[in-house]
UniProtKB/TrEMBL annotation:
The lineage of its organism: Eukaryota, Fungi, Dikarya, Ascomycota, Saccharomycotina. PANTHER family: SUGAR ISOMERASE, KPSF/GUTQ (AFU_ORTHOLOGUE AFUA_6G08860), SUGAR ISOMERASE, KPSF_GUTQ (AFU_ORTHOLOGUE AFUA_6G08860). SUPFAM superfamilies: SIS domain. Residues 45-202 form the SIS domain. Signal peptide: none annotated. The gene is KSF5. Transmembrane segments: none annotated. InterPro entries: SIS_dom, SIS_dom_sf, SIS_Kpsf. One of its GO terms (molecular function) is carbohydrate derivative binding. This is Polysialic acid capsule expression protein.
Amino acid sequence: MTTTKALDSVYKTLKFQSDAVAHLHLQYQTDSFSQNNLQESLNILYHTSQVAHGKIVISGIGKSHKIANKLVATLNSLSIHSSTLHPSEALHGDLGLINEDKDCLVLLTASGNTSELLQLLPHLSPSIPIILLTCNRDSKLSNHPQVNSLLYASLPSYLNEETIHGLPAPTVSTTLSLILADATILALSEMIEEDVLKRKKQFSMKHPGGSIGSYLSHLNDNLNTTRDSNTKKSFSSQISSSSLLSLNQIRQNFRSSPMGPTNSAAKSNVSSLTSSDDEFDVLDVKQGKSSSNIDFILTNSIKLAKPAQTKVVSHEQVWNLKHDEELKLLQWITLYDFLIVDKRGLGIDTATVKDIYKSTYGSQESKSVENWNKFHWDFMRTFKEIDI
């Protein structure tokens, strides 16, 4: 096959995948069978995790087992207790993983006819609620009396793998299964806790490492307690290397930002924070604030300013500033000459903020969430260390 034909194959696959996702979206907007089964599935998952205080056990074989591992990781990161169960290993003792009085079981199979899952059912208590994630509404498992509800990802024949490429390698079906399962898990987490800030805080406690941990480290009570108890001097003896990683990396990337003092040898690297979950080199955390990082010109300007010219804001106000709070920002930069982040030793002159605002979000044509996020990023990273 020539490179040109290979590229055409990629474009074809992307189009079919996109069409399949669009079909799934339309399905859940219009099909009452899918909607009712989704609602029942969410009820089972909620009851298991919040009322019975059990765990969500997910089982599949082949590619479905790999999806199960990913879904369990997502659930656990959201503080929803979950485990995988390999159907073959289950028949050799791993059935002991399931607590029939508390747990529920989610079976993953695109066809709905996977023999290993069918062989598992006679050995399960009828009292265990079972949800089937499948692409086939009419199958042995879909029609099985022990299955309570379906998470049904419809895959029309004209969009399936064999039609696209001539062989049934799991690709479109796994995409749909993963998208539907992820959407269900996120909906479940919102049922459990509606407050997005509380969900973020809880998530940060379970994910202290990598760029995600860095991004959310300001919400992590474990890290904040350690930081406060050491008067912001040294973290190395009291938190794990992964937590050191998160705190120090965000200090590098938010140099002179609301996240606090940085290692003076470190350079800001925007791209590292936009990756989903990279791991970084652990760098030494400098003890105390280095005078070489302090902006003395800004410090003196703020000291000479009248109190009415200075606005003290909290770290949370700056960090969580959303695009629908544009009016709040405009009040800050119109009424005051300087902003100071409370208890962080950070400041900025509002003239600088105005310039950033005008260049990225100020015009009517640039009013988009994407442009706001760009402005917000530039705004945060422009804060300077001050000595007041």
